[in-house]
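Worked example 2:
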Amino acid sequence: MSLETMQPNPAWDAASYEDAVDTLEAHDDLVYTVWGGDWCKDCRRLLPDFGAALDAADVPEDRIDEIAVDEDKQGPGVDEYGIEFIPTIVVETEDGDEVTRFVEEEDVPPAIWLAERIDDER
């Protein structure tokens, strides 16, 4: 099931986030798993811009897994990945090794936060 909140924000300006877009684009071997809910205020605030960043970086759809959770934050992979807050975005290698994760309470947007950690880890 896909998340409506992952639809790219048409007003998002990729040029203003060039470093983050470049990083997301450069690491084409990564997989992004996004847990969220269209009912969730934080998801509605954060995920459209992240969707726009992935779109601007030409990340293929087969490298993005959108998982909708219910209002009790239950859904596929929640227990396996220890998901407590949404949105949570887990970035993994093709082999399933976790590179980094963004959890709702970070103080910068997901694309920037993840790009900085991807650069640090790789």
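The longest strand covers residues 30-36. Strands lie at 30-36, 64-68, 88-93, 98-103.
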